[in-house]
Amino acid sequence: MISKLLPAPGTPRVLMFATLVNTFGNGAYLTTSALFLTRSVGLSPAEVAIGLSAAALAGMVLTTPMGYLADRRGPKQVQIGALIVLAACFTGLTQVHHLWSYVLIACVIAVADATVKAANGAMIAGAVPPAERVRTRAFIRSTNNAGIALGTLAGGLPLLLDARAGYLAVLLGNAVTFLLAAAVVTRVTAVAPASAPPGRPRMVALRDRPFLTFALLDGVVAALYNEVLSLALPLWLVAYTSASVALVSAALLVNTIGCVTLQVWASRGTHTAADAVGVARRGALVVAASCVLFGLSAGRPSWLVTVLVLGASVVHVLGELWLSSATFAVVFDLAPDWAQGQYQGVHQTGRQIGNMVGPPLITALVIGWGAPGWTVLAAIFAAAGLVAPHVIRWGLRSTTRHTSAGTVPAVRAVT
């Protein structure tokens, strides 16, 4: 019974535990970071935005090369190194007193964080049989959401204290969780470094047009569905309904419970990019339906707004889970076995681009246009659901998907 609630023994379970430790500290930091930087460090909101923008740019430029490094040096070693760098960065944040030191550390954090994710994906691809990769990745995502949720609760106390000592405790505690996660990762089976076969470009992911297209499309779609509850919904409730903003917490709780408990269920039957074609379409159309439900709440009585918002939240999380499952399958399956790290890096870059485009787009639609904006947002998701299958099939037809002499086997774990 317990085995059904956990990934396979060995590397999958170790990575799941490392993720739980790591994301607990991240959740606490994310809860307190804005107030720490403004009230304790003394930065203005504009300066915080400058640091975050610089970090996003650094991540977009360097994530793919770091994924390439994970392939060449081995994802286990690169992930451990990135976790140690993150521990040093969060310790260094305790000494930040002006903008430029914050910008520097924020850039290193962004690159190291993306490196951890890329190396983590490469490690799963190298140490887990192909049929179990998506399921393992689903367990990791469930654990990620659980860790952040628990960390968010823990970060509430420093917020109540609103004292520098409390914020510093969160930073140092987060640094410790990175070191603990690095210690846990040392227990996984090492994945052998891989080199490009003769005649193949080293940075093959940057020449793979179908995959680049998918990474960009998926990045924008993921940014939009992530911002629906955290950004669009609170602004919408204030501007266009009479319901309490506390309804946002209920919607986020529905999303968190769904992501923690149902992600593995949603990934069933999705093992390859071919399997993901229908799953991606279904997920995008379901998220589109949730946007229609959110839009129907304009000007309704508070009780009806509550019903519509909670119902839309349930629909939304189901679509999100299917989209995530499809993404896992596509990223693993379209990448050559010797380039999993750099493909994971390109996918992370797509997410970073989406995170830059998503917030202003969704704010302009929902707050600028009101209910029609939700309809347009639904149309964007529906269009993505119709386009994604063609992009995935394009990737499956691409010659970069054919293995050649000298390609490493699908599972290349070494003791």
Automatic annotation (TrEMBL):
Record keyword Cytoplasm present: no
Major facilitator superfamily (MFS) profile domain sequence ranges: 11-401
Superkingdom of the organism of origin: Bacteria
InterPro entries in UniProt: MFS (IPR011701), MFS_dom (IPR020846), MFS_trans_sf (IPR036259), MFS_Transporters (IPR050171)
Keywords noted in UniProt: Cell membrane, Membrane, Transmembrane, Transmembrane helix, Transport
Parts of the chain that traverse the membrane: 14-36, 48-70, 77-93, 99-116, 143-161, 167-190, 211-237, 243-267, 279-297, 303-332
UniProt-recorded name of the protein: MFS transporter
Upper taxonomic lineage: Bacteria, Bacillati, Actinomycetota, Actinomycetes, Micromonosporales
Gene3D superfamilies with a match to the protein in the record: MFS general substrate transporter like domains
PROSITE patterns: MFS (PS50850)
Organism: Catellatospora aurea
Subcellular location: Cell membrane
